[in-house]
Amino acid sequence: xxSRTKVLSLYKSMIKESNKFSSYNFREYAKKxxxxxxxxxxxxxxxxxQAELIQKANANLNMIKRQVLVSQLYPTEKLIIE
Amino acid sequence: MLSKNFKNLLIGQKNYIxxxxxxxNASNETAKNSDKYSQLNNLRQRPVYLDxxxxxxxxxxxxxxxxxxxxxxxxxxxxxxHPYGWESEKAVEKAREEVAQLINADPKEIIxxxxxxxxxxxxxxxxxxxxxxSKKHIITTQIEHKCVLDSCRALEMEGFKVxxxxxxxxxxxxLKELEKTIQPDTSLVSIMAVNNEIGVLQQIDxxxxxxxxxxxxxxxxxxxxxxxxxxxxxxxxxxxxxxSGHKVYGPKGVGxxxxxxxxxxxxxxxxxxxGQERGMRSGTVPTPLVVGLxxxxxxAKEEMKYxxxxxxxLSKRLIDKITSELTHVVVNGDxxxxxxxxxxxSFAFVEGESLLMAxxxxxxxxxxxxxxxxxxxxxVLRAIGxxxxxxxxxxxxxxxxxxxxxxxxxxxxxxxxxxxxLREMSPLWEMVQEGIDLKSIKWTQH
Lengths: 82, 446
Description:
The complex is a heterodimer.
Chain A: H1 4-18, H2 24-40, H3 47-73
Helix pairs in contact in A: 1-2, 1-3
Chain B: H1 4-10, H2 12-26, H3 29-41, E1 48-49, H4 60-70, H5 83-103, E2 110-113, H6 116-130, E3 137-141, H7 146-157, E4 161-165, H8 175-181, E5 186-190, H9 204-213, E6 217-221, E7 240-244, E8 255-259, H10 287-325, E9 329-331, E10 342-347, H11 352-358, E11 362-363, H12 379-383, H13 388-392, E12 394-398, H14 405-425, H15 427-433
Parallel strand pairs in B: 1-11, 3-4, 3-5, 5-6, 6-7
Antiparallel strand pairs in B: 2-8, 7-8, 9-10, 10-12
Helix pairs in contact in B: 4-10, 5-10, 6-7, 10-14
């Protein structure tokens, strides 16, 4: 069984990292999507499935970190509604 | 009877635009560009993007898959003698599988191209020319994308006969009409899945079944449908299908064509060369772009349910807000058979171009990007029977995976505000408010 704190900390790092997207749309999408996925699997008890999802989330966290860097390299003006 | 001056006053708003257009046409291209570019230089804030049918942003997951092949892994996928080639080839084949999986095809049936325009050209011209000795007839619809219509025009010049099927007022073709149109010498029926202007989804299952029973090949331009709605080439009996990269959050400059192997579809290639892509599309396969298309298809497959629910919700939110605040508004196209991310609305008594200019804080378009420079009313809206006035005043709202609730609220608010303001300026609107039926007015002849 995965510890609750471990999952929560992964969730928090993903949100924290997504907040750094310079693009408003990517930032908002990532946060909403991550929140949705973690909530959808809150009651998941299948351990193999849990491990698979955690692995996927870690891969996604690394992807977000790389893409945040790219997004910060070429920033544009903010959107009118930001 | 109304006098000439009064009539001119009545259509003042429209004439204003016409005058602008005359001035625009008179000035040269460079002046127009320098005006646009100087506006760009003064851009402080970006408008919100609601033009997802023109193109979509590249998903960060897609760019992440592409970047290795734009930097250190630059091998030619057709190089057989070294690891540079092998790694690129492996990536291209993985992408081919990802594209195939999205539409339930075999990877061998996927041909990479430069985009849906090229895919459509290869499909329509390729099939027609291959079977030209026995079959000389092609069927398409009046609401296809320009690249299909133009390919058909080119075939007409070569002596083919083309039937351009009309659509009903909801944008759907009449299947009985299609059945009647199919002749013994019909080689191909080309009907798009989702229309790029009004978002209507044709009944491709029924069309596929009909074509198969008549032994006619069925091509569908699915550029606007792929990755957004479930498409299954087996279930829908599709023989050829065109895909675009940049409409599914992938890169521009890449697309694919599905060509069925059983029963085999044969076609005459357009481009001569090294015989890549089973000889149907010669030219080095662009690894980073193809990898991007593959990643876009994989992400689309994974995200389809989530995206569908979100876009459906945003679409409803936009339509509800606008229709609750404004009267004399028509949402174009069938309300059921459609992709909800493409919302085309006609605002009566408002010039579409004036509205676009007023809504400068929203990136919108009145129709397809290919024709957005012309002031001519959309041929798609005319095909569904909208009269010229309504066709002129239509706006397409394109919702994407990345559109937020705040953007939808802002868009609805701005649209409502500007439509109200423009209607206040319109004498026609004033007459309607007074209860005059505009159709009863007899304009004087000049």
